[in-house]
Amino acid sequence: VWTTEAELLLLVNKGLPGLPGEGASQIIRFAEADDDASQRPLELLNCVQFEGGSALTVTSTCVPSSGERVRFRFSSCAACLYGLEFPLPPVGSGFFDVVYIDADLRLCKDVRGDLQICKRVG
């Protein structure tokens, strides 16, 4: 819904050369596996959508640690441009603190001090 994260704002507002940005989304889910979901790690998927179905997707492992803190480590990154997928190196790790959460909204503050408000969909 809203963020202060400069890189995300740049991609959504300015897009890529020839590809205007259309939006961004974040999904937190259990990682895919055939076993019991309660034993699987969480996965954090961030996606920036561009015109024509192009996208930049970054996937992270995601582990709640203490209290409100959630630690993440980037595990994959790919750009899908004009129907062609290009793998990119996933670089980085960090954490975010869940400052507020209810049935519809989540407010987080990350390791750099950026704020993010996410709305539950579905």
Automatic annotation (TrEMBL):
Compartments, record wording: Plastid
Q: What is its main location?
A: plastid
- Is this entry keyworded Acetylation? no
Keywords, in A-Z order: Plastid
Which Gene Ontology cellular-component terms appear in the entry? plastid
Q: Read off the Pfam families from this record.
A: PAP_fibrillin
Domain named Plastid lipid-associated protein/fibrillin conserved is located at 1-117
**Name of the protein this chain belongs to:** Plastid lipid-associated protein/fibrillin conserved domain-containing protein
Please tell me the species this chain comes from. Calcidiscus leptoporus
